[in-house]
Design a protein that fits this description.
The complex is a heterodimer.
Chain A lengths: L1 H7 L3 H25 L5 H26 L7 H18 L7 H27 L4 H20 L2 E5 L2 E5 L12 E5 L13 H19 L2 H11 L1 H6 L4 H24 L12 H14 L4 H17 L9 H17 L1 H27 L1
Antiparallel strand pairs in A: 1-2, 1-3
Helix pairs in contact in A: 2-7, 3-7, 3-10, 3-11, 3-12, 4-5, 4-6, 4-10, 5-10, 7-10, 8-10, 11-12, 13-14
Chain B lengths: L1 H30 L6 H19 L8 H31 L7 H23 L4 E2 L7 E4 L4 E4 H23 L1 H11 L1 H6 L4 H26 L2 E2 L5 H14 L4 H22 L4 H15 L14
Antiparallel strand pairs in B: 1-4, 2-3
Classes of the chains: A mainly alpha, B mainly alpha.
Amino acid sequence: MSGKAKTLRMRKTTVNSFINYAMVIVLFVVTQILIGQGAVSNTIQSMLVPVCCYVVMAVSLNLTVGILGELSLGHAGFMSLGAFSGIITAAVLKDAVASEPLRLAIAMVVGGIFGCIGGVIIGLPVLRLRGDYLAIVTLAFGEIIKNVIQVLYIGLDENGLHFATKESNMVMSEAGTFVVRGPMGATGVTRLSSFAAGFILILITLFVVQNLVDSRAGRAILSLRDNRIAAESVGISVTKYKLMAFVISAVLAGMAGALYGLNYSSTVASKFDFNTSILVLVYVVLGGLGSIRGSIIAAAVLTLLPELLRNGTINEYRMLIYAVILILVMLVTNNPTLRGAVDLIAKKIRSIGKKEKAEGGAQ
Amino acid sequence: MSFLSYLITGISLGSIYAIIALGYTMVYGIAKMLNFAHGDVIMVGAYVCFFTMSGLSGYLEPGSVAAAVVPQVAGVLLAMVVCTILGVVIEGLAYKPLRQAPSLAVLITAIGVSWFLQNAAQIMWGAAPKNFTSIVGGTVSLADGALNISYVTMLTVVACLVIMVALTTFIGKGKMGKAMRACSEDKAAAQLMGINVNATISVTFAIGSALAAIAGVLMCSAYPTLMPTTGALPGIKAFTAAVFGGIGSIPGAFLGGLLLGIIETFTKAYISTDLSDAIVFLVLIVVLLVKPSGLLGRIVPEKV
């Protein structure tokens, strides 16, 4: 009897993880049904893949910022690496792999590998730095990636890939085409991404991040965040676990980048700039540091919000409203006086509701 | 000769970065926050100066001495006043309630303020770029025209030096400066010594924003395109300069800004125009790896 009770009782973290999976699956199914019935506008439908990408970006950045506790301002750099390596891979494999989903999957894996390489290159040296210095180096890294891709020309012909830093220096055969054209970015990309692929990527991300946090390594990472000196003194390797979290986060961002890049027929490197990194950071902070579910909801809602505000009168002011909402939310959630006031109001409303219910019951 | 002219351009650009970086570093040193809205205050300053100048020039007789001096001086002064007020208001409304909050919350709020300023500027003044007329025109030709230095370049360097000396004296000698140093050392202890910490932080924001206004006017005089996003990239670069020199250190911001400007100009001249940003940031990364607290930053020992 007691044995049966034990198997049924799950740990809180496990329950939390399953709620997240269930939430994503339900949202996916509901959206699919709505699309089937034609209840979703074209604008929103075109936003579905970016929403998936930003959800993955937010969850993976949450691993660095919320769970590892290091501020990264260059997360879009990994996305950029993934996007362009994914686009190039898909272009190279166009004839070799006929199946589009398979080609997308390979491109996403390659994007993840490039994200991993970037994560190790940037992570090994900079994780020695702390706090704001780490933030500025990740920012610098993101800008470097953007700048380098902007001067890169990549051509593809029957002999393979050709690289050059100027359009006139490109040597390739007659049949060759440009895949990446410097500041114009990648053009003529075959669009492979689909909402289903985004959904699967979110599930993979959730699986990786939630299991990591719930593992021995995850507890080591959390202990580094809470007290690095104490964690070090009990023999936890700072470099190893910091790098682990950082690189996993970069891999997921690279995969999201590949999905994002293959969703549009053209992509420019300046899309993945400091502002994009900041945008994802905003999702993470508004969703709640360390809260995976918060990141998912914040990323999805805030990606769609500017689109939903895009009607007549508000249109011009929508980004202004967005900024004001952001400031107000930060003030209300972080200022003790304001927070107290909001809690009080919420309590009052609840008690009024209860009273009415009670009165209604009495009658 | 071209080397010398690149060097002068570099020093001038570096002086602009240094003036912006001073604002960053002072705020960081005292309020311990990264004020990402600083770059947008620069933009507001430049717009105020632009509209004052174009508004006043209509009332003055063209060609007279007054027409050559009054709009410029009024523009710079008004820009400084508006930015000072803006800086203090931003601090009071958005940052003061978050004194006790985690630094990330303050950072996100600063980003919110930055977006707000950019979008408000876009709604008020339009997204189309404005062509900023330089506050001082003309150039000096030296060595038979081989070396041309514009008056703006000279003004920028002189302004930067004056600001640097004035700021060092103010912080080193004045009572308010002493209060600032005390707050930057230990806020709680400073408060116990009878220093009004909130007022000190407000003054810091006021000075930083006034400097941002000057930087904005000088920057747009040298690089005349004025848009709502004009301040964003120089803001990031000046922040980089502040970190480069050791954030929180005033001579560090000066040195960092100057070096960054020179490196950027030389990269553009001798290596690659397109890759200049990448190389500047690469230098920053290398410097931070060798000296993690920046060139002139203090290494704070860790307490266990």
